[in-house]
Amino acid sequence: MDRFREDLRTTVICLIVVATASVTPAIAHGVQHALFAHNAGKLGGKPASAYGPSSGVNYSRVVVVAKKGGDFKSVQPALDSIQGTQANPALVWVAPGTYQGRVRMEPFVDIEGAGRRLTRLIASSASMKFKSYVVKGSDSASLRQLTVQNNGGGATSIGVFNQASSPSLTDLLIIANDGGTTSAAIYNRENLASPGITDVQASASGPSLAMGMYNNGGSTTVDTSSFVGGDPTNSAVAVGIRNTGFLTAFDTNVVAFQGSVVMGLQTGSGADPGAAKLVDSRMGARFGENRNRAASVDVAGSVLDVRHSAFRTFGGDTDPAALQVDTGAKAQVATSEIDGAPAVAGGGVYDCRLMYSFSGGVLNGCFET
Asked: 42-43 and 367-368: which strand pairing?
């Protein structure tokens, strides 16, 4: 009965809006605000407490972005109009549609779309490298349920850029295409960049360097997500995830395909060793061409810890290893599947236990018996 009364009251208010809209704009505007106030805590049929990084979060204010009928027609002006605090967080809700322009997240102001197939935020490359993003992250804020797409066209193409910031990224499709020198769907820069990533599909392509995610110095946790780097022209370095910070991944797919060098996960690089832990995850590399390296995981001056995961590499005329452990690096792998020719290569230190090949053969250490 209470649900019936609530639906009836909403229907009556909607009829009043239709009626008054033909009378005077001022009256119609007032009634529309009354309608918004009535439904401010109920987006998509859910109470405001259902929209938040944890249960029980009540937003002090909800601003709606929509092509028609919202408070704003684009996202950045909506963010500029409100402020949130830890005690009183705010929400920018983005209705279905495609919205052009860069977005800078703000602390304690969450951004939520109507679904990754319905709400799209789009931009192209900028003249400056670290302004070539679609969304710039912020601490204490969440981005969820939408698509982020950078169409490139310049030197750098970044989907979500976290400059020493740690947003929550959930239920997203993030795409970075056609960066002349670098494409990265997610770019975490500096040690304080430690986003939490859950249920995210991130992919990048470009003619030089394409990375599903670049974790450059941050401490990032990933769950139930996928990262893809690839280049249809076969000329780029393609990397699913490049990690020079600290990465922990659970139930995650990391894949690189095509390109002159393909590496599913590349952890460690030169003076930036980093460390990675993978649990219940899958890493793959496919179609490394031009007589260069193909590796599901490349460990360079880093520490890798893998449990209950799988490595698989196809192609690569040189170093086509499932696991490449370079000199100075260390890998510990247990209870996992591995397939490559060879399974492991490089001059680093590795410890493999209870390993199995995809063909069913038991591996002695990291090598088939």
From this structure: unpaired
